[in-house]
Specification:
170 residues, mainly alpha, two-stranded antiparallel ribbon, 36% helix, globular
């Protein structure tokens, strides 16, 4: 979250951070930034990689992907974003559903939050989320949390589906 604040995005794109605990999905911690085009995504990847390399490690991967992991698993062709690759075939029956959604739902193209990502605007909910991340790190054996926090009691009955290994170990 703090790294996300240091990335000055031209369109103040919506972004979020999460822990990954799905067995079929790679990674442990994730920061997601929502882009409106592949070109915008490529530009943002470069910006983010510079900040992550300077703030954390050059070994942390930054990737561009299309759609959510579940959608890409169901429709692998959709996930392909290589130059020259065709987007998956669009099924005509989808148009009716999409038109209904477009008519019935108000889609806000502005960022989800009405604030900039600034440390002085951290709320109690932000602090609670950060504590949750730190406890999750303790739970899965990621001791990097000790750099910013005291030893925490791990969550009970929670485990990482795949073994954790630090980026520095790779």
């Amino acid at each position: 979250m703090m790294v996300m604040e240091k990335v000055d995005l031209p369109n103040d794109n919506t972004r979020k951070c999460m822990v990954e605990n799905r067995k079929q999905v790679f990674g442990t911690y994730k920061g997601l930034i929502y882009c409106r085009s592949i070109e915008e995504g490529k530009e943002i990847c470069e910006l983010v990689q510079k900040v992550i390399s300077a703030e954390i490690s050059e070994k942390i991967p930054v990737a561009l992907k299309r759609g959510c992991s579940e959608y890409a698993t169901t429709y692998p062709a959709y996930a392909q974003i290589d130059q020259g690759s065709a987007v998956m075939d669009y099924k005509e029956e989808w148009e009716e559903i999409e038109n209904l959604a477009d008519r019935e739902l108000v889609i806000n193209t502005q960022p989800c939050m009405n604030r900039k990502y600034e440390p002085q605007t951290y709320s109690a909910a932000d602090a609670q989320a950060m504590l949750g991340w730190l406890k999750y790190a303790a739970t899965i054996g990621d001791e990097s949390y000790l750099k910013i926090c005291w030893r925490l009691q791990p969550f009970q009955n929670v485990e990482r589906p795949a073994p954790f290994h630090a980026v520095e170990d790779e």
